[in-house]
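Hello,

Following up on my earlier ticket. Below are the two sequence lines again, exactly as submitted.
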Amino acid sequence: MSAIAPAQPSRPATVTRSDAARPQHAPGRTRRRVRGIALGAVGLVCALVWVFPVYWMVLSAFTPAAYLRSSTPEFLPLHATGVNFSRVLEGGGFTSALRLSLAVTSLTVLAVLVFAFFGALAISRWRFRGRRSFVLAVLFIQMLPAEGLFIAQYKMLSGVHLLDSVIGVTVLYTAAVIPFTIWMLRGFVAGVPAELEEAAMVDGLSRTQAFLRITFPLLAPGLVASGVYAFLQAWNEFTIALVALPSQSSQTLPLWLREFLSASANRGVDWGQVMAASTLIAIPVIVFFLVVQGRMTSGLVSGAVKG
Amino acid sequence: MSHDAALGVPAHTDGAPTPPAARPATAPRVRRRRAPAAPYLLLVPAVVALLAGLAYPVGRQVVMSLQRYGLEQQFGQPPQFVGLDNFARVFTDDSLWAVVTRSIVFCLVNALLTVAIGLAFALLMRAVHTAVRLTLQVCLLLAWAMPMVAGVTVFKWLFDYRTGVVNWLLVQLGLDGFRDFSWLSQPFTFFLVATLVIVWMSVPFVALSIYAGLTAVPEEVLEAARIDGASGRQQLWHILLPMVKPVLSIVLLLQVIWDLRVFAQIRLLQDAGAPVSETNLLGNFIYELGMSRQDFGGAAAVSIFVLLLTVALSWPYVRSLLKEDA
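Thanks for your patience. The regenerated structure is below:
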């Protein structure tokens, strides 16, 4: 979560040199400037290449089907229309998948936040017997691939008749997301010095009051980050959903998008609608993602104690 | 969970300031005396969730791998224990080893490519003007933020044989062989597209992590090297790269672990009519064995192999995280 990096230190070109040396270095400086421009151009080309699929998705979503089928693609929104979006929304499948996705995602976020917050509190505020093994277990568990477990998870859910249910998927998602969120929140909890809380207690607050009024607000950024992380995982997840929601009548958005594409494959894919559907799924993710990028790098309260 | 589950993985390096040295020594000790039960109670919900969602399935999987668990059991026959028969059966099957080899090659190619491109991007970001760097960062973030299913779907559209941009572009460049060229219907070009998708999705995390590592290199060190007459290349090989080596190795390890478990991207690309048996990776092989052929015993045996492999590979990463847990 380190995208917004500190400002670049000044470039070597600004190092002052004595006037006498300048003529000798002039060719070198020109060469350096040419090199700088060339590198900048390479950087811009890379940026364009990397963002192109995202751009193409949004552009195609707004382009009428007739233009998408033409032999020469258009690279600018010359014929923008919202018709692809309205077709997707009229279809009905999208809204029912959206409903299921929202249910699963919000339940997962809620469960993860509460459970992981308690867990993080336990391991960062107390040293207790078994703590080390718990931390070790959490770290290993977060590495376990869904791809090595989904068969057993499928058998488990079918055994207790929870296939195609919100509860079943939510349990699997919660278990999958908790380890990393405990680890992430642990850092945030440890970042709020216990001295702050103790100072508040010296000033007459009870332990609970001190926690709620002092520590909890300071943990808000950590909770937001963890919540967004859980949201992104649950909203995007495909593999577990594929086995836990086998029926066509219960699909989360990623499953539905796949189905939507396959269904239209027989009569020639309407890529405009498929891209509109992809865009609809991607937008909340991109928004949350960008929000949390900034939020998480803003530092915590390291200066609050030392003043 | 998914391949791009990386969101926030580096958070524990910069999102979490280390606590003041005095704190762990004093505060926890006070609490421990007062409420010995509290931490255990707080852990109960998380532990229950982990037991239900992960630990029980793992146990169930071990049992299943030792049982004859196929179609008959689906119709009510009790499964019988057969010892290591499933392992013997699956692991003497050549088709499994073909999949294992394919997965390892695919994984290594993807991980190395991702880290190489990520490193190049990070160095590029260091070298260019701020405006260019910010543009590149925003573009990388947008690609990183794309949901996996949406990303794969876009690539299917880009590589569509009739109206895809890629074929159009190649034909414009004079390569007429690519008119109506179907990328996803033969194994080699299928994996080429799969590699492009995965590298595209994974590079942002790698590039931004390495770049964060590069900015941590103190400018004075480089300044000193320049005064001593070190060339740009010497600075790169003798200062920058050694100093970001820890980041590089962790990122490479994570990529290897993640690329070994690629499943969904392959599954989604296969929908376009690829030869399934020639394009399956480990996860897909398990899925097919279990869900399509109903051989749950065999699928469980392969799954256990994958789990053990992951745990073995994860050990260095977990150890490096544990060091942070003062």
